[in-house]
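User: quick one, fold this
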Amino acid sequence: MPAYTVYKTTTGEIVGDLICSEQDIALNVRSGEAYVDGAYSAFAYYIPNGTPTLKAVMSPVVVGSTISELPIPCTVYVDSTLYQVDDGVFEFSSPLPGPYKCIISAVPYLTTEVTLL
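Assistant:
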């Protein structure tokens, strides 16, 4: 059976892979989604305008407890807490000493991990 990759039409973000008949693919695609032939990794690809494309490498700058040069918008996870960043800079503070592992996510970039001290 053929494989398909389902993605959000607004961002190109991959939401899943399917293996099904061509007749059944439409039953598995929601409003605001589309699909392409083939299986593509959500980690490595996004699909702008129906074209599977490798994600770019993110290059955040970490100074102390601040991360700058972030994509706009992006999401930063710190110790399982989600923060939405809309200005390209994330400033973290905590009464507890670090280090803190941060995972940064934004389409069309590869997910990146940094450590704040």
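User: anything notable?
Assistant: The first strand starts at residue 3 and ends at 8.
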